Amino acid sequence: MSQFKLSNLIAATYTPLNADGRLNLQQVGPLVEHLLGSGVTGLYVCGSTGEGMSLSCEDRRSVTDAFVTAAAGRVPVIVQVGHNSLDDAKQLAAHAQQVGADAISATCPSYFKVGTVGGLVDSMAEVASGAPELPFYYYHIPMLTGSKIDMVPFLTEGVARIPNLVGLKYTDTALHEFQECFELQDGRFDVVWGCDEMLLGALATGAQAAIGSTYNIAAPLYARLIEAFEKGDLQEARRLQGLSIQMIRTINLYPFHPAMKAVLKMKGIDVGGCRLPQGKLTAEEAKSLQSKLQSIGFFDWS
Description:
Pfam families: DHDPS. 49% of the residues lie in helices and 12% in strands. It is of the alpha/beta class. The chain has a single domain (8-233), classed as Alpha-Beta Barrel (TIM Barrel), CATH 3.20.20.70. It has an eight-stranded parallel beta sheet with strand order 7-6-5-4-3-2-1-8, with helices on one face. α2 (57-71) runs parallel beside α3, α4 (117-128) packs across α6 (151-161) and α6 runs parallel beside α7.
C-alpha cells in the first residue's frame, strides 16, 4: 500500500444538484466523461469542491456510488470522508471500501479544533481504520478546518499508528513545508498539491500530482503547464500559470464554487448550483462572469 501513488491532475469533483438542492446523480456520468475527456487522471469526491460537508451521510454514500460506477475503473476514485463525527467518518470510509473506491481521504474535525499532533493522529487513525484495505490521505486544509498543525511530525508519528497512511492532500501555500513532507523518509509519502494557482511552484519543489477545483474547467491548460515545465521551458510555464491566476482571479469576483458550477454549465455540463450557505449565481451574475471570462480569452485557451 505504501507504493500507491497519484499522478498528474486529479479533479476535485463537483456534486451535481437539482434546482431544489437535491442530488442530480444522472449528471455524474456526463461530468465524469467531460473530465476524462479533458485529461484528468483521477477523481476526488465529496471534498470541499464537492460540498461534502454540506451533504448528509446518505447523500455522500450515493454520490460515492455514482462516481465509482461512472469511473468504471478507468481512473482512481478518492473519497473524502471527513466529518465532525469520527464515527460517521469511519462509516463513510467503510462504505467507500465496500463499493470499490481506490483510496480515502479525510479532513479533521473542525468544530472542536484539533490542537495537537497526537490528537490529529488519534482522530485520523479512527477514521482510516474504517477502510483498512484502502490507502489513506490526510486532507490538510487549514483555512477551512482551522487546524494549523505541522504536517512533518504528523506524518512521522502517524505512519506508526495508521497502517494505511500513504500521504497528504496538501491545500496550503507553505511550499517549504510541502517540500519537507515530500522529501521526508526518502520520499516515502505521496504528498499531493492542492492550490491550483501555485501549481508551478509545487512542480519546482517536486510535486508529481495535484488535486484541484479548476481542473474541472481548464485541465488542458494545466497539462500544457506541466509539459512546459518538464521540457524546461519556464517562460512558457510561467505564462500558462499566469493565465490560471487570471482565470481564478476572475472567478473569485463571485462566490467561487457557485461560479465554478456556472462555468461548467457554460461548457455544457449542468451541475446546478450549490447548497446553502453557498447558493448559486443569479442569471445576471452568470452572464457577467461569462463576459469577463470571454474578455480574458478563457474559452479559447482553457
